[in-house]
Amino acid sequence: MKSLIDIKHRIKSVADTRQITYAMETVSIAKMRKAMRRFETGRLFFETIKNAIDDVVLKSGDVSSVYFGEEKSGDTRDIYIVIASDKGLAGGFNHNVLKFAWGMIEGRKNCNVFTVGQVAREFFEKRGVTVDIEFSGAGYDPGKSDSAAIADAVINLYKAGGVDGIYIVYTKMLSSTSMRPDRIKLLPFSRGEALKRLDALDAQKEYVLSEIEYDPSPDAVLKKLVPQYLRWLIYGALIQSSASEHCSRRNAMSNATKNASEILDELKIEYNEARQESITNELSEIITASGAVNGAGV
Predict the structure, then answer these.
(1) For the chain, which residues make up each domain, given as ranges?
(2) Is residue 226 classed exposed, middle or buried when 0-12, 13-18 and 19+ CB atoms within 10 A define those classes?
(3) Which of 25, 45, 114, 176 could form a disulfide with 253 if both were Cys (CB 3.0 to 4.6 A apart)?
(4) Model pLDDT, residue 198
């Protein structure tokens, strides 16, 4: 059996660890709630712009735009923006989203990778994939300036040509206990994809048959709306990933705190047993010594 001193040191170590994990759990809860409030606050604005762009895409007739394009097959030139975290201790958060992204990127030659979060950059570099742009500091506590920087970079690259599609890979938060990796196509906009979305609402005929004239032009309207749309879409992905990270970390730290409590209970039992054994041994030694003294006196 371990000595009392060793058990005391172990108890102190586990108690200190439990204090840290509990503090991290508390911080993650506050961060998660803050992120989701920010996301919900701007949801209406996002939906309004999204519907406006769908209107332009579907009701502008044969008008062309640099932002229009249909799905291409073969070895396309795509850009993937992958959102992870800057640190670990978040359960399966990083593993799940990076595994999901790797499934789309592995083996691709005409593919560029942009990362948000240090863990994402390290993940791709270890696999021999060059990270073209890293948006550091945008994952843990994202702001609108972060999404604006990413959106502006995306738009400039797309306008420069040579890019078939731009996607963002993030963690979609369904609830505080449910989240999953997801992919969103940022550019180009596709009439076919817009029709599929509307088909779910049973409104496809209405949009196909109606046509709206835009002043000064559909292209001018898109040039005004697209930057705002992309900024909010990227912001929403950043916020949901951030909330998912904090939620995963909360769950991980909660489990760690529970495990530490269970270990402490076991260590206390072990300590009491060791202490009782020590006292019993001391008493036995005293009785034996006393018996020896009494025997010598006789």
Answers:
(1) 22-252
(2) buried
(3) 25
(4) 59
